[in-house]
């Protein structure tokens, strides 16, 4: 039986949907907009959970209409919540490049980019604590279609581009 650790946003309320869709042993870590910071204390806790529960896979999931991401590129009503200001700046930086990103035509590009950043941060951090890493990936939950979509590749969602 697969054992999966999910990084989710509490505003998405995805736990029952995940439990119904992926009927396996599921564990959750919740942070607003998947904004968690992977400092050494957090990485030690994740390592201990991976070892104690024999976690095979880690999935970062956001809903395509995530309230925190929408707020970051909108009115910023939640920007004063502890720890969100840096995260909001990351989101705003990417959403402001909408000419090249076409964020408004395909919001999964922005979500994919943000999830790819978290995947890279966690992978890099866990390499110091574990010899063998579980599979780490991301998905976007499409509320209208009621399906989990694979995120866009990190090759599509680069942090910057150079044009000659």
Question: What is this structure, in a nutshell?
Answer:
By secondary structure, the chain is of the alpha/beta class. 38% of the residues lie in helices and 19% in strands.
What would you note in describing this structure?
The protein has 164 residues and is an alpha/beta fold. The chain is 38% helix and 19% strand. It has 6 helices and 5 strands; from the N terminus they run βαβαβααααββ. Strands 2-1-3-4-5 form a 5-stranded mixed beta sheet, with helices on both faces. The longest helix is centred in the last third of the chain and has 19 residues, at 108-126. The termini are far apart.
Residue windows where pLDDT falls under 50 for at least 5 positions: 98-104, 159-164
Structural class: alpha/beta
Any idea what the radius of gyration is?
16 Å
Order of helices and strands: EHEHEHHHHEE
Name the helicity range.
25-40%
Q: Which helices and strands occur, and which strands form pairs?
A:
Elements (H helix, E strand, L loop, with lengths): L2 E6 L6 H7 L3 E6 L9 H14 L3 E7 L3 H6 L11 H12 L2 H4 L6 H19 L8 E8 L4 E4 L14
Parallel strand pairs: 1-2, 1-3, 3-4
Antiparallel strand pairs: 4-5
């Amino acid at each position: 039986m697969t054992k999966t650790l999910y990084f989710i946003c509490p505003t998405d309320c995805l736990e029952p949907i995940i439990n119904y869709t992926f009927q396996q042993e599921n564990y959750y870590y919740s942070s607003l907009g998947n904004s968690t910071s992977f400092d050494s204390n957090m990485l030690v806790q994740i390592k201990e959970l991976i070892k104690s529960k024999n976690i095979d896979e880690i999935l970062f999931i956001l809903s395509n209409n995530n309230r925190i991401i929408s707020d970051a590129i909108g009115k910023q009503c939640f920007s004063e919540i502890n720890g969100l200001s840096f995260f909001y700046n990351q989101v705003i930086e990417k959403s402001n490049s909408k000419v090249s990103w076409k964020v408004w035509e395909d919001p999964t590009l922005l979500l994919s980019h943000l999830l790819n950043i978290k995947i890279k941060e966690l992978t890099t951090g866990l390499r110091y604590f574990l010899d063998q890493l579980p599979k780490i990936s991301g998905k976007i939950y499409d509320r209208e279609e009621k399906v989990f979509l694979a995120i866009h590749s990190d090759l599509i969602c680069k942090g910057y581009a150079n044009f000659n």
